[in-house]
Amino acid sequence: MSLKTFGKKSYIGLDLGAKGIKAMQMERTGNGYRVTRTAFIQTPPDSIKDGSVIDPEAVGLAVRQMMREQRISATNAVVGVAGASVIVRTVRIPKMPESTLRKSIKFEASRYVPSSIEDSFIEFEIMGEASDGQMDVLIVAAPRDIVESRLKACQIAGLEVDIVDVEAFAMYRSLVETNVGPYNEETIALVDVGAQTTNVSVVSCGIFGMTRSINQGGQVLTDALKSHFKLEDAEAELGKSQLDLRALIAEQKVQESPPLRVLQPHLDDLIREIRRSLNYYQSQQTEHGTPTPVTRVLLAGGGANLPGLAEYMAHKLGLTVDRHGIYDAEVVHAPADNQSTGIELAVVGGLAMRPHVRAA
Predict the structure, then answer these.
(1) Which terminus of the chain has a lower count of CB atoms within 10 Å, N or C?
(2) C-alpha distance from residue 237 to each of 9, 218, 222, 233, 243 (Å)
(3) Average per-residue pLDDT in the chain?
(4) How many whole angstroms separate alpha carbon 188 and alpha carbon 183?
(5) 10 Å Cβ neighbour count for 111?
(6) Checking phi first, is residue 116 left (phi over 0); if not, alpha (psi -120 to 50) or beta?
(7) Is 242 strand, coil or helix?
(8) 167-175 and 346-359 helices, crossing angle to 10°
(9) Cα(57)–Cα(34) distance, integer angstroms
(10) What residue ranges define each of the domains in the chain, with the CATH number in brackets?
(11) Which residue, 105, 38, 63, is CA-closest to 325?
(12) Are 301 and 251 within 8 A, CB to CB?
């Protein structure tokens, strides 16, 4: 959803999450991108929920302080949206000119958007012709209140928003379009494990088929440990980070580890929901007579830092699961002091790339 045109401005990618806020600034180089600034702060309590900024003032002031402390001087931002109410779906409709579709897009989108069309931002892109006089169209819809709450927070932070992007698009941009792996010609599932939610998208040869938001993330696991063992938040987080989920593949080892026994049902619930998402995509493809099963999962997000999660997910899904961060791409150059792959930076990195892609 483009809100302004680009000029010679300074930008940050801004990822507003329920538990954490991330910012990244990068510049285009001759052979890729150089990350010049990254910043992270805890989200003010209860200020972001279900993708909507409940307290724009608290979030905006926190972002402003973060930028000041990290000496980030950008005046423009690219922000992302995600959540159960943000719809991304490729649909097949009768072939028509783009001008005609633009007049009827609200009607077409109303079949897939659960909220009020009048209260949503709607965008589309014609992906190409199909058989029998049909064409494939990517429809994106986001509730106005979710978008406008983020714009308000950015305004308070002193930032002008040029682009509101879909977080799944940002993840695809930073991990696939940068050629991290052999994904461009496959049907893959992007799985972004956040604190409160896990976002699942299916992309076939570069075309988004669907997205879904699951109301489970890394915090569910932390809360399970916290409740069972009577721990504080920090203790539960530390304990979680020291576990290795690969032990869950060998059932006898689970009996030897009370923490793993506590986590396993919650992990299995999450993976079951991911499988349901993939099965739904497959059923939709079968209806069109062109089944393209998912062959690989690309795992990222802060929750993907959990040791052994990729291996356990691969075991349960029966699919190859790759775990990548933004710095795994040869064309993305990390700051000199960086020691990580940037697995938790996939979304904010893709947002930070957006103006440079547009300008290229």
Answers:
(1) C
(2) 39, 9, 6, 6, 10
(3) 90
(4) 7
(5) 10
(6) beta
(7) coil
(8) 80
(9) 31
(10) 1-83+142-181+325-360 (3.30.420.40), 182-323 (3.30.420.40)
(11) 38
(12) no
Task: Count CB atoms within 10 A of the CB of residue 9.
Answer: 12
Q: Is 206 helix (H, G, I), strand (E, B) or coil?
A: coil
Burial of 93 per CB tally in 10 Å (0-12, 13-18, 19+)? middle
Residue 191, strand partner residues? 200, 299
Tens digit of each residue's pLDDT (9 = 90 or more) over 341-357: 999 999 999 999 999 88
Paired strand residues for 286: none
CA 360/CA 94 separation, integer angstroms: 33
Calculate the CA 347 to chain-centre distance: 5
d(CA 140, CA 170): 14
pLDDT tens-digit profile of 94-139? 999 999 999 999 888 888 887 778 899 999 999 888 878 899 899 9
Report the half-sphere exposure of 163 (CA within 13 A, side-chain side): 26
Distance CA 344, CA 241 (A): 14
Chain centre to alpha carbon of residue 201: 9
Is residue 265 a contact partner of residue 330, using CB atoms and an 8 Å limit? no
Residues 6+ apart with CB under 8 A from 264: 248, 254
Give bridge partners of residue 189 from the DSSP assignment. Answer: 202, 297
Q: Which of 193, 166, 156, 119 is nearest to 15 (CA)?
A: 166
Cα 156 to Cα 194: distance, rounded to the nearest angstrom = 25
The 10 Å Cβ neighbour count of residue 26 is 23
Beta-bridged to residue 42, according to DSSP, are 20
The rounded Cα 162 to chain-centroid distance in angstroms is 19
Q: What is the identity of the amino acid at 94? A: P
Helix (H, G, I), strand (E, B) or coil at 113: coil
Are 205 and 218 in contact, with CB atoms under 8 Å apart?
Answer: no
CB 13 within 8 A of CB 32: no
**Containing H/E element for 291?**
none
Nearest to 209 by CA among 286, 322, 262: 286
> Residue written as tokens 């538990």?
19
